[in-house]
Amino acid sequence: MTTESLPRTPAELGLPELPVEVGPADPAGHHVRAKLDREIRALLAHEAGTRSGADPEDLHQMRVALRRMRSVLKLSGPLVGDGAEPVRAELGWLGQSLGEVRDYDVLIGHLREVIADFEVRDQAAGRRLVSRFVTERAAAKRRLTRALSSARYSTLLREVSLLTTDRDAAAEAAEHQHDLVAGLAKPHRKLAKAVRALPADPPDDDLHALRIHGKKLRYAAELAQTSAKKKRAKRITKLIKATKDFQTVLGDHQDAVIAAERMRTVLATADGEVGFVAGRIAERELARRAEARAAWHDSWTVVDDAARALHT
Q1: Half-sphere CA count of 133, side-chain side, radius 13 A
Q2: Can you say whether residue 28 is alpha, beta or left, with left for phi > 0 and alpha for psi between -120 and 50 degrees?
Q3: In 3-state terms, what secondary structure has residue 171?
Q4: CA 189 to CA 285: how far, in whole Å?
Q5: What is the C-alpha radius of gyration for the chain, rounded to an integer number of angstroms?
Q6: How far apart are CA 162 and CA 68, in angstroms?
Q7: Which residue, of 5, 51, 223, 289, is most buried by count of CB atoms within 10 Å of its CB?
Q8: For the ranges 22-31, 46-55, 85-94, 190-199, which has the lowest average pLDDT?
Q9: Domains in the chain, ordered, with CATH?
Q10: What integer pLDDT is reported at residue 4 of this predicted model?
Q11: CB-CB neighbours of 28 under 10 Å
Q12: CA proximity to 262, closest of 133, 101, 131, 134
């Protein structure tokens, strides 16, 4: 399938000209469909920029839109019918391709900032170090471009659009019984349980998993906010801010962990100058990791308080 034959606009996917609008009086399923409508439009809006690679932010925003759709379908998919889970799985396939390139963008951007602060005599070696990851990123980008040009991607876009417009009778009956704000208790409980299960010095992977739990709570809160009345909507705004801050702290931790691991890999094969720079960067990243570890629990307390306030 050529890129010219792919659906490129909301109209080509059968979506209405304008995004779907919903309010607190609408059933939960309407909010889920409206959220999917907004996010598929956002994904399409950033696709061209993702293909061109001119601005890494396009790929980032495309990935965010995809993650929001996956999270909504995980939490509230039954409200739009049986087709939700297969679509969620396919979004995961696309997410892997986007995520691979995004990880390189984050790493390369951070390394360039760090190296810019080094002495001039070390910057040439720093650029050689970065060039390794630029080459690897180019290969990942080619894989992503193939995915975005595939029939599988085209089918996925159409399947998401159908979820925003098709009305499943069983799902329609269930949506009137579903409270999206009350539904925030579930992702909050899962996050709280994961926090309680952590040892005093948690493994890096466990903190990364915690960040994913926090992201799910945030996306669920964004969905619930459109269904909430004024007082609850304000409380949800506080929860969204708290989860963003929580994600930022744990995101810095994960980025530092990945960067330090990459530097260790470089040290195994690098020449003296590049190895010296890689060692310096690894030390910085381990310090950044330690800072995040010292800060994450305080940010979790703010999230916990904000989530509890919704149910009092």
Answers
A1: 24
A2: alpha
A3: helix
A4: 32
A5: 21
A6: 17
A7: 223
A8: 22-31
A9: 22-178 (1.40.20.10), 181-312 (1.40.20.10)
A10: 54
A11: 23
A12: 133
Structure tokens of 69?
């759709």
CA separation for the pair 220, 234 (Å, rounded): 15
Cα–Cα distance measured from residue 164 to residue 29, given in angstroms and rounded to the nearest whole number: 10
CA distances to 59, 101, 108, 144 from 141, in Å: 10, 6, 14, 5
The dihedral built from the CA positions of residue 295, 296, 299 and 304, taken in this order, carries a sign that is negative
pLDDT of 299 > 70? The answer is yes
How long a stretch of residues is the chain? 312
Averaged over 55-80, what is the pLDDT?
94
Contact 279, 264 (CB under 8 A): no
SS3 assignment, position 21? coil
Name every residue whose Cβ is closer than 8 Å to that of residue 252 and which is 6 or more positions away in sequence: 288, 291, 292
Phi/psi class of residue 53: alpha, beta or left (left: φ > 0; alpha: ψ in -120 to 50)? Answer: left
For residue 64 the two structure tokens come to 């965010």
Tell me if 90 sits within 8 A of 156, measured CB to CB.
yes
User: Other CB atoms closer than 10 Å to residue 148's CB: what's the count?
Assistant: 19
What is the secondary structure of 23-54 as a DSSP string?
-TTS-HHHHHHHHHHHHHHHHHHTHHHHHH-S
* Matching residue, tokens 């180019």: 138
Answer with the residue of higher pLDDT: 212 or 4: 212
Amino acid at 285: E
Picking from 229, 226, 197, the residue whose alpha carbon sits closest to that of residue 213 is 197
